[in-house]
Amino acid sequence: GESVGLHLPTLSVQEGDNSIINCAYSNSASDYFIWYKQESGKGPQFIIDIRSNMDKRQGQRVTVLLNKTVKHLSLQIAATQPGDSAVYFCAVNTGGFKTIFGAGTRLFVKA
Amino acid sequence: DAGITQSPRHKVTETGTPVTLRCHQTENHRYMYWYRQDPGHGLRLIHYSYGVKDTDKGEVSDGYSVSRSKTEDFLLTLESATSSQTSVYFCAISEQGLSGLAFFGQGTRLTVV
Prior knowledge:
The complex is a heterodimer.
Chain A: E1 4-5, E2 10-14, E3 19-25, E4 32-38, E5 45-51, E6 56-58, E7 62-67, E8 72-77, E9 86-93, E10 99-101, E11 105-110
Chain B: E1 4-7, E2 10-13, E3 19-25, E4 31-37, E5 44-51, E6 54-57, E7 64-70, E8 73-78, E9 87-94, E10 102-104, E11 108-112
Parallel strand pairs in B: 2-11
Antiparallel strand pairs in B: 1-3, 3-8, 4-5, 4-9, 5-6, 7-8, 9-10, 9-11
């Protein structure tokens, strides 16, 4: 069946360094991708999205890269801060109500 | 959190009892969803609604029912709670269906003992 996976369950980075969180998906028909941030005890919060007609999109300190050839998605966080510590997960939509969520990568930021 | 309120935030209930979780939105979004979140799993869709009285099943709908009598309210009912339904439940809303952005509530932690 369809799947969405993240390469690492945890990631530890030094404050000020860049973070890269990865996501792989299986369905080549996927056309909408979202990254969410979830802090402890809270609901997922939108970070950035991208549609399949793009391969890069930038926000404030965040960049999402989409490689449709290898079905890979990444979230880059520049100058990682302690407030970035959270679980990050991708969501992949293949049209209609078919959205699959990855299990998440927990980002730890070391001061 | 985009005008979404879930209640209760925490609940402990006994096996076999019915439980209703409420989601209330102030954004007037057409679509509403109930997800569950379990360790090691991504969010999984239980049920969703695409309008008042219009609902459909998600991937893990067994043992759950929903109702939407008003645009702003979406109720999730566990007809007879089981320990496997211990989870964190999230309500979400969106304007464009799941091919667009969804906003999530704070979650309800449900424990079935």
